[in-house]
Design brief:
Blueprint lengths: L1 E4 L4 H11 L4 E4 L16 H16 L3 E10 L6 E2 L12 H11 L7 E12 L2 E13 L15 E3 L11 H7 L1 H22 L1
Parallel strand pairs: 1-2, 1-3
Antiparallel strand pairs: 3-4, 3-5, 5-6, 6-7
Helix pairs in contact: 1-4, 1-5, 4-5
Length: 198
């Protein structure tokens, strides 16, 4: 099954390829000649994921999926949420965002947070959404060199390591994106099996 993953984030691509395995031929935006910047102008994760998947289908004709992810911090009233990637500004680096978060959380005892991913899939003329949530808390300092984004300061519930200290297989099994992709894979696998029976 050929599918486009509508992202330019090489870290996301690596994680998702690892989760999908060899059952699917995953193409990137670059491989289909999509080099324009797809603006994420929605105020929800669902909306941004939909914008990206709709763009690929409309302009390139491929079945595809796209995701959007947000870090939702309880003490900050759910912020930065949909603005997680640009929390410290439009051209913020991962480290810029992490440092702003550490400052924002300074003095808070309640450090509960969760990562939430929403995937928008367009397949055979249908659009479906899959959600993954990982609860945890914000650490007071960075730990680990792996992963990306807020991984060095996010410790998932029930674990003694941050995402940035975990190998890709462990993170993929328990993370927000991993859980959403697992639902996506289960659906796609069912579709493949059904089409073989026809």
């Amino acid at each position: 099954m050929k599918l486009v993953f509508a992202t330019n984030n090489k870290h996301k691509l690596e994680e998702v390829k690892n989760l999908l395995g060899d059952s699917f031929n995953l193409m990137t935006l670059n491989e289909i000649g999509c080099h324009e910047d797809i603006e994420e102008t929605a105020t929800t994760l669902e909306g941004n994921a939909k914008i990206k998947s709709d763009h690929v289908k409309l302009h390139y004709g491929y079945d595809c999926f796209a995701d959007d992810t947000g870090l939702e911090v309880e003490a900050l009233n759910g912020e930065p949420g949909v603005y997680s990637a640009r929390y410290a500004g439009e051209n913020a680096t991962f480290d810029d965002n992490v440092q702003k978060m550490l400052k924002a959380m300074s003095g808070f005892k309640n450090r509960k947070a969760r990562f939430r991913t929403v995937i928008s899939l367009i397949l055979n003329g249908e659009q479906l959404f899959f959600e993954g949530i990982c609860d945890g808390h914000i650490e007071a300092s960075c730990s680990g060199e792996k992963g990306f984004g807020y991984d060095p300061i996010f410790k998932p519930l029930g674990f003694d390591k941050t995402f940035a200290e975990m190998d890709i297989e462990t993170k993929g099994r328990i993370s927000h994106r991993g859980l959403a992709v697992q639902k996506l894979v289960a659906y796609l696998t069912k579709q493949v099996q059904t089409s073989r029976l026809k």
